Predict the structure.
Amino acid sequence: MMALDQAPSSSSARTKYTKEEYELAKSQSLLQYLQNQGYQFKREGTNLWRCKRFDNLVVNDAKNSWYFNGRASGGSGIVEYVKQEYIANGLNESEALVKAVHELAEVSTMEYPPQSNGTCTPKTDKTPKEPIVIPKASNNNVQAINYLKNKRGIDPGIINDCIQKGKLFQTKQYANVAFVSRDEKGEIRHITLRGTMNYKDPETGKEKSFRGDAKGSDKNYPFVLEAKNTIQDANNTNNTNNTNQKVFVFESAIDAMSYQTLCKINGKNKVLENSYFISMHGATTIEPLKTFLKDNPHIKTIVPCLDNDKTGISCARRIKEAFDNKGYIVDDHKPPKVGKDYNETLLTCEKYGIKRLKHITQISMQSMAEQNSPNM
């Protein structure tokens, strides 16, 4: 691996970018680069900044270095950081280096004055958003299935259905679960990544797991679980069956799959057959819901099923204000009665005399594990 304080050597990679581009790229501030990507930081000490969204990430602004608590990993130099991001999303080392240099050289033409809230705003327009970088899939789905089934309590039939339809797969690097969101043409637009193994934060002692998005993901596109009896024709046009007019809205794909599992437990097969279930990748914006409604004009009823906390309740209120009596019926917010979200409800229901795995259908777990991500 090339030393970061040296210019590129006379290798094949050198013909793909100039020495001037490389020098310009490596001179950029890693902290400001990440801030411009939308990440906020809080000061940890002299020159140290901790990411608010991924609090195991710490950046040393003076040294342009970073490290991940709990992973025993890190590095020095912004070029190396961006290169590793591209490698994690499927590029080889040479391709990742060239792409990182080009990206950072372009970024250098903009100015990003720091703001008081810990973000940076460019003075000039951003360059066009790059296409999503789809992580390479593993040759099996063993860890993803074990995580979703055993740690999250999700029904294997629901997991299998998502694998078959290309809605989730296991990544080759880090064995993360990748939840796939597509546009109306079936093109992948957003991928949520969830770590399958927990680690203990050395500072707090709490168990945590990796959460992130594939580079280039567009959060305006939700994760969607279609109504079971929805039929699509050759032109990918949704069937306007009068029974398929309701959408349940969640903050995460795991919550949506957990709700479906709870429907199976309680015998609510008609809900599964006739309703859509979507994840908005959080509760900070309702744009994913807007995209879904635009692509599915036959939807008439919206059911907010967001977390039972201040953020979830506030988001449900925004949905009500935006859509109720404006061409849609918005049901009252249905936060979980047990736990903060519906996955906590699913994992807790055994305490109330319900065995959450009693509904499992006989599916070959080996067959599921061997499946990969179709139509990627």
